Amino acid sequence: MAGEKILVVDDDEQVAAYVRLACTLSGFQVEVLHDGRGAFKKALEMVPDAIVLDLKLPGTNGFRICEELRRESRTRAIPIIVVSGSWKNAEDRIRSLEAGADDFLTKPFDAQELVARINRMLQRKKVDMGHNPLTGLPGNLAIEEESRRRLANSQNISFAYIDLDNFKAYNDVYGVKQGDKVIRLLADLLTEAVKRWGNPNDFVGHIGGDDFMVITSPEKSETIFNWVAGRFDERIKAYYSDSDLKAGYITAKDRQGNIRTFKFVSASIVFLTDKNVESRQYPLLIQALTEMKGYVKHNLDRSGGSLVFKDRRSTPHDLPGDIKKSA
Fold it and tell me: The domain 140-325 belongs to what CATH superfamily?
């Protein structure tokens, strides 16, 4: 498990130094904060693999920080150990778990026990959630689990599939590292849009590569996705050289090995509601989104940059041609 990032939030400098030493000797990369008020912002910046969180902090407490972290899609699945030197009773421990903590320890604690608990949580996270290492967003297993849960238990849901156009050509010309920056740009815009205009329980997942999935509500969808499309088209220009910007395209090999020109990278965003998912089954949801994605890719003019499409079919059996551009 060596190399994972640990965020330690504790106003007791001696305890924080003790935890830092124990984790560093075990091969972890450690960041320490002594003020809980910056914990959430720091977690968003570094997306740690685990958090060691003191219960009592200046200006706030561990309960509130846990709740805030669990409301944000990028930090929702980060394992959290809450530590305290003064658990009042069992209710405090229960409350910490209800707020989103995965484990708790009583000060003073043994360093080896702390490291063992961190390792156990990291292993469980890797097995259960499979977070994408590039963006820190929940991966395939978490996406499937969340989608199945929503389909089974909720109504009035919107599911979106997002991916990038002309991305392979961009990667070939600018390299994988620069391509990763473009993927992170899309991830950041999706996360920011959901935070600005979505619901507290909205979900952003990273399927892999340049593919993402968002779960929100129908009334929020067009606002969220139209903003993402517009902002992506604005900001992607910063990822091209001046000469390519002036030309308005790049030159690269296509999948058949032919040299051709490619427009700038843009986003395809397709979404539908649970009403258009036959039998509310996850495989049929993925099939419908894949059909929509294929329709947008191969049947529509892409000269205008990123596109947002909503499934307006009256039944799941209508043809993909009934999909119309979102207003």
Answer: Reverse transcriptase/Diguanylate cyclase domain (3.30.70.270)
